[in-house]
Amino acid sequence: MTASPAFRYSHTTRDNVLVQDLSDWSGQIDGIDQVQQEWLDLGRPSPVTAAVTEFDPNVFTASTQHHLIREWSENANQVDIERIGFVVSRTSNLDGGMPVNVPQDVRLFVSLDRALEWARD
After folding, report:
1. Structural domain tally of the chain?
2. What pLDDT score does 98 carry?
3. Average pLDDT of span 68-92
4. Is residue 107 included in any domain, yes or no?
5. CA 21 to CA 39: how far, in whole Å?
């Protein structure tokens, strides 16, 4: 049985971009399977070609970012998402590309608006 998340999250679709708000997530794995399945279900229909996820900067740290990028990339392969953006406020040194070998174009941003602009191109 899948555990229900003990945190708030949301998924919305804006044009071709699936936007996921995980800014309330503490990094605990309980409930994340349900969130992940919903993401996959929403990412399946065309014309979704990109995904942007907002994180709390205390969760998306240097020690976890490579793991999270690989996980999101594996999920994106299942639904043909070509671009993955991560939004981490107050962490300007992460803004830009990521040196992780995955098939998608992966970028880090400090602004949701900037991430959406990139994802829609």
Report:
1. 1
2. 56
3. 83
4. no
5. 11
